[in-house]
Design brief:
It contains 21 helices and six strands. By secondary structure, it is mostly helical. A two-stranded antiparallel ribbon has the order 1-2. Strands 3-4 form a two-stranded parallel ribbon. A hairpin with a 2-residue loop joins β1 and β2. α7 packs antiparallel against α8, α7 packs parallel to α14 and α16 packs antiparallel against α17. The two termini are 48 Å apart.
Length: 462
């Protein structure tokens, strides 16, 4: 299909950027994951002493090849079984049953394994595990590496510009100076911790394999002497998940909600950065490289717009909206099961795609900006009142209990210069060492240990 006719921009305008998620977010990917669960479950049944099912090494290799070599033709066959029917199979109108028949279709004629495919299972046993295989892969292989790339870019930015003094703003007003590098280090540090929460959430995903009402009833009816909860625990662990200990027909999905919330937390850090970067560009603290031939405005030729940060902000905001919805919705089910979550879960990939777009566009934005040290220095020089905090703090040290009031009277609601401060210092009853310390104060030099604080990133990296 021509991407210009795609319903969603994820498969249209942004298809090139969202392509890495196709392996985890497409319907074909879900089919492949379902085949994997069905095959591995069949092999696990064959390993049970209680069952008469026997599969030799060649059988096992052939079965695993169904998902290891899963391709477009295989996905097409499953879809055909579901919607049109195939061979002896009428249209199932059921996507999981179509997968079962797909596996059966690839067994040797007369194979005893045919009756053991999907034995005792409900569709949700397959689906919840398949979805988690995809969610974990998308997070670990696509989203987390991109988050790390943003974090590394911020850390490099912080180290390179650790000594560049910059006016801070609190409540939008001039405040105690900082350094540009230290402010980027704050974002890098926050993002690093957020990435840790995302990784922890993927490691704690839980799988369910307990039958139609979460009681192992069909399994126990067939083989009452088998420890089915133990079997399920071992099988789920073999796929890399913890076992959800108590469920209805559905996995309660609290684990997915935790992951969605962790991603939203990482996105919130980056949204904060997007908005700050936009403001720094607006204030000319950051200069932007203009791409050759790129149009910034359709009417104002001089403009270079901060479109990457704006695009990132929009996509991350959309992602967060979807993640909140998903986290709320998938954790609710009418009684033991209703089907509304099935269609909702198909949109997890879209939420992840908006995350991915946000990360990529933010990286693009960071790669095109550089601190404008001259502008930062000029604004610091034009805002000498910010040393007032240092002045009143030094005077307090020297026992002046009216220090705050004196500086307030000098600076509140008026423009002041360094010369105004120096006149004040000459009038003060302080020793000469203190006077020299006060006279040496400048906005650009009043950054505390901001530069050294960037080293906390190196400690975190180690």
């Amino acid at each position: 299909m021509n991407s210009l006719y795609a319903v969603s921009p994820l498969d249209g305008r942004y298809a090139g950027r969202t392509e890495p998620l196709r392996e985890y977010a497409s319907e074909a990917a879900l089919m492949r994951a379902r085949v994997r669960v069905e095959v591995e479950y069949l092999l696990a049944l064959a390993d049970l002493d209680a069952t008469p099912l026997e599969l030799d090494a060649a059988d096992r290799s052939d079965l695993r090849a169904l998902y290891e070599g899963f391709d477009e033709a295989d996905a097409g066959l499953i879809k055909r079984i579901e919607t049109e029917g195939y061979g002896d199979y009428a249209a199932t109108n059921h996507d999981v049953k179509a997968v079962e028949y797909f596996v059966r279709e690839h067994l040797p004629e007369g194979s005893e394994a045919a009756s053991w495919i999907h034995f005792g299972l409900t569709s949700e046993d397959v689906n919840n595990l398949a979805h988690r295989l995809l969610v974990r892969g998308a997070a670990d292989d696509v989203l987390v590496p991109q988050l790390h790339a943003v974090r590394d870019a911020l850390a490099d930015f912080a180290r390179e510009h650790r000594d560049v003094p910059m006016l801070a703003r609190t409540h939008g007003q001039p405040a105690t100076p900082t350094t540009f590098g230290k402010e980027m280090a704050v974002f890098a540090s926050r993002l690093g911790r957020a990435i840790g929460r995302v990784k922890a959430a993927t490691e704690e995903l839980e799988g369910k394999l307990a039958g139609a009402s979460g009681t192992y009833a069909a399994h126990v009816a067939a083989y009452p002497d088998v420890d089915w909860p133990g079997f399920a625990r071992e099988f789920v662990a073999g796929l890399g998940f913890e076992q959800a200990p108590l469920t209805t027909q559905v996995n309660p999905c609290d684990d997915l909600a935790t992951l969605f919330d962790a991603l939203r937390g990482a996105n919130n850090v980056l949204l904060d950065l997007d908005r700050d970067a936009w403001r720094y560009v607006s204030d000319r603290y950051l200069g932007q490289e203009a791409a050759a031939g790129e149009t910034g405005s359709s009417t104002m030729p001089h403009k270079v717009n901060p479109i990457d940060f704006e695009n990132s902000e929009g996509n991350l905001s959309k992602a967060n909206s979807d993640l909140v919805f998903l986290g709320d919705y998938v954790t609710e089910s009418r009684l033991q099961r209703d089907l509304s979550d099935s269609t909702v879960k198909r949109n997890v990939g879209a939420a992840f795609a908006y995350c991915l777009l946000g990360y990529l566009k933010l990286r693009d934005g960071l790669s095109k900006v550089v601190p404008n040290e001259q502008v930062m220095a000029e604004e610091l020089g034009a805002t000498p009142e910010v040393i007032g905090e240092a002045v009143q703090t030094i005077l307090r040290r020297e026992g002046h209990d009216d220090a705050y009031e004196r500086v307030k009277a000098l600076t509140r609601g008026r423009r002041v210069t360094l010369e105004d401060f120096r006149e004040l210092f000459e009038e003060l009853a302080v020793d000469e060492d203190t006077r020299e310390q006060l006279l040496a104060l400048t906005p650009a030099g009043y950054t505390g240990v901001a530069s050294d604080m960037v080293d906390a990133l190196d400690a975190a990296d180690r």
